[in-house]
Amino acid sequence: MLLKEYARPKDLSEAYELLQQDEHNVIIGGGAWLKLTNKEVNTIIDLHSIGLQEIVDMNDRVEIGAMTTLREIETSEVIQQYYDGIFCQAVKGIMGMNIRNLATIGGSIMGKYSFSDVFTPLLAMDVSLVFFKTGTITLEKYLETKKMDKDILVKIILHKKDGRGYFHTMKKTHLDFAVINVAVTKSDKVKIVVGARPSIAVRATQAEEFINNNEINEASILAAAKLAKDEIKTGKNARASQEYRKELIEVYVKRGLKEVLHNEG
Questions:
Q1: Predicted confidence (pLDDT) per residue in 34-68, tens digit
Q2: Are 180 and 248 in contact (CB under 8 A)?
């Protein structure tokens, strides 16, 4: 990244004003993935002085500031309590600790990285995003929106629900990006999410509908896993073929369903 100016505003209003002044002004998160882009930036805006680096436990939700590092999420006893701690588990497997101490949850979300291990568990939970001007939207709507007005992500809201969770990421090496990742949760209903396919995470809605509307047994779990394999689009890259990813989806969705539904059927 090539940049001309650096700014560290004291509040969100100042940061937002700076962001709007030039189309080539951008917000910086932790800066962990700067080497992945060749953008030319006029002013890079650092949010570290605004107070967005905290995890707040509230009655019905957990609020995670956008500048909270992945390491802080990984070690959070509060976040660990929900969906069998799959969000903490997913974050723990991202690169090495040096990267997790640097990378922020806000930067990870705003980057919309196709290789992300973050989106998959979050999409399987009940999560909303709070922006400075746009307000609150669901994570699912954010991922479906191809282009948003320039805005600042303020915090992530994890709505508290009692539920089970499963997450698995398949990698060639511990420090590599995922070949595929899968999350399955069960609260009021089952959610099935597949990411790093190698596109951004999506829900397997046909498989979800099937498993949520049929008796839970070995046959229905196998059928739902096959539906997920068939409906989720995959591609190929240097890490894996399209066909290999399809097979992995079926295997890990089946394991995930068995994990979260083991007391049913």
A1: 655 667 889 999 999 999 999 999 999 999 999 99
A2: yes
